[in-house]
Amino acid sequence: xNLVDQLKEILPEDRVSTNxxxxxxxxxxESFHPANLPDVVVFPIDKKEVAEIVRFxxxxxxxxxxxxxxxxxxxxxxxxxxxxxxxxxxMNKIIDINPQDLLVTVQPGVTRLQLNAELGKHGLFFPxxxxxxxxxGGMASTNASGTTTVRYGAMKDNVRNLEVVLADGSIIxxxxxxxxxxxxxxxxxxxxxxxxxxGVFTEITLxxxxxxxxxxxxxxxFSSLQNSVEAATTLLQVGVPIARIELVEAASIxxxxxxxxxxxxxxxxxxxxxxxxxxxxxxxxxxxxxLFEDFGCYQFDIETDSIGRKKLWEARHNNLNIxxxxxxxxxxxxxxxxxxxxxxxxxxxxxxxxxxxxxLQGGIIGHIGDGNFHAGIVLDPNNTDEVKRANHLxxxxxxxxxxxxxxxxGEHGVGLGKMKxxxxxxxxxxxxxxxxKQVLDQNHILNPGKIxx
Length: 453
Hints:
Uridine Diphospho-n-acetylenolpyruvylglucosamine Reductase, domain 2; 5-stranded antiparallel β-sheet; 4 domains; alpha+beta; Alpha-Beta Plaits; about 35% helix; Uridine Diphospho-n-acetylenolpyruvylglucosamine Reductase, domain 3; 7-stranded antiparallel β-sheet; about 20% strand
């Protein structure tokens, strides 16, 4: 009996697919990494089915790769060794909303916007915002963060408990509903960011927040990249509780105006958002404006209504799509380094210089409040020379980040693209990670070929 027929004994036939289009859709993500077809795609509806699938895969040494919606940027969901792609679109239920404890429990296929639509009915929201309407399972697997990290933290700061199917099909819980614990090893933090290499998530409990009384967005325009970065880091040093502070270069602003229909000043811009009471937000805005003027900010605009805020953040979040739209047939390699704030201005300036010297088109945007920024490099994946130059450019930026105590990936994860930097970044600690992987996945069925190669 072949693989597909055996899986049809676990799941109904209509939830086991070898359809060519379905296989193709599960062979790639949003990255530039080459696609690779799975042998079969399955669509479980509950934890019991997931456990049976994984147990079967382990017994038969078949690779298993979790799949959310394919919005990843480092190839985590690409089944490079074929096998079973587990699609969680049918596991998209919000299991429990607990306003009193500020907790919500969801299945992994729930998307970020779906979750916030339901939470909003209770006056709550989940703040982690990577831009894409990613699944919560995918966000937890890569330790996603995004524009609100400076105020609310990354996924690791907001996941309270995980239900995980291990390689042998057994199920564990990694945490509890308690806000803190000193009991045992921190398994939740181990699994968040593990990219499907240690287990498969079936339930996720998240910390949520009350919707702020007032939300005000804004833009601050500078004529100097270095001044904008220094203004942002100084704002954090003086203690203004900014909710978002995002850097967008002049070239990206020009593309926004062309494609998104905005009319922004075409210079280095910080996109901002303030959360809190009206009195506190008004005071924070005034402090920010005065401080930014000391660093050469020549335009400071705010958006108080929801339509204006939505338009502003859509323009920022759609930067990747805008780059692709203005370069049809090409892909974008996104660097993803994160550095200490004291080295941020130097790192951004260094990256800009490297882009200019490479001869490739590229722009820099970043979650500048937490030291994480992205150099988006436009390339033709079929052009060997462009791929070589882009890889060299990425390597230059990563090596600089590591030299100042930073990391090769702030939020996109290791996947396929950052494996080659793991030894340089972690040293002997990488051997500890490999040992953990060996204990938890002796047959190496769980997303093989990721993180460690």
